[in-house]
Amino acid sequence: MQAPFRPVTHVRHVAMAVPNYKEAVDFYQDLWGLERVADDSGLSFWGTPADPEQYVVRLREDEKKGIDLVAYAARSAADVDQLAERLVAGNIKLDREPGSLDTPGGGYGVRFYDPDGVLVEVSADVAPKPFRALEERESIPQNLSHFVLNTPNLEAMKGFYEEYLGLRLTDWLGNVLCFMRAGSQHHILGLGRGRHTAINHVSFEMRGIDEYMRGSGRLLRAGQEVLWGPGRHTAGDNTFSYFLDPNGNVHEYTTSLEVVDDENHEPRTYDMKPETQDQWGFGGAITERMLAAQANDPDQKLWASSPV
Fold first, then answer.
1. What is the pTM of this model?
2. Residue 222's CB: how many other CB atoms inside 10 A?
3. Environment class of residue 173 by beta-carbon count within 10 Å: exposed (0-12), middle (13-18) or buried (19+)?
4. What is the arithmetic mean of pLDDT over 174-190?
C-alpha cells in the first residue's frame, strides 16, 4: 500500500500586509521580542535567535489589511514538484510555478491559493541561519508555533489541507475549531468556523513556563491589554496569553504544546466548557473581548498575489 503524500513538516512564517506599519515594527521589536533580520522600504522580516528559520513573520506596509501568505516547509524539492503536479491536476489555482525563491534564505517553492483565497507557499532547501538555545529567563519567542485561520468554509478548507498538504486532524473543539498537524506537534494549523476569512491568531512558542509568564508580564507592564489568559487549554494542553498587535491581529505566547503519536493518534472532540478552555481556571472562559478580536476584520488580500 502506497504511503500517503505528506510533503509539509512545519509552518515557516506568516506574511502580513498592515496599514499601521511603523507601529507594528515597534511592537515586534520593543515588546514581542523578535529581531529584524532584513528590511527594505515598507518591508521587514522578523526572526528569533533560537530558530534556524530565516524569519517567522514578514510585515509589508499596505493600505489594505490581510494575509500576504502563509509559508510551510516541505521535505524536499521533489515534494514541492509533486505537490505542484497534484495541485494542477486538482484544478487548484497556482500563483507561482515551482522555482527559486528570492526571499532571505532562498530555496525552492510553489505558491497557490487555498479554497478561501489565502495565498500559500510551500518551500524546500531554504538555507538555515545560525541559531542558539535560549537561556533561562530569556522571555522572547523560540519559534513560530502555529497559525489559526477563520473560515466560512471549514469543511472544504479542512479537506483541502488534508488532501494536498497532507495535514492530519488531531482534535476538534466543539464543531467550531479543528486542529491539524504535520507530525507529532499537536497542530501547526487551526481552522475556525467564522463569518469571513481572517487571521484568528498567530502563536509563538516560548522556552518554558517561566519565560512564557515573564513575556506576558512584560507586555502587561508596557500597558498592553491581555485579551485572555494566562491559562492552559485542554485541546493541545498548551499555555496561552493573547494580545492584540497594532493592526488588530491577535498574537499568542504559548509553551508546552502537546506531542501526539503521529501515526496512531485518534482525533478527539472537546467540549466548550470553561474548564476545558482553561484547565487552570485563572484565565477562565473565553472573554467577549477575545471573541470579538479573534473574529477580526475580513481579509482584504484574498486571491491576491503577493508582491514579495
1. 0.97
2. 10
3. buried
4. 98
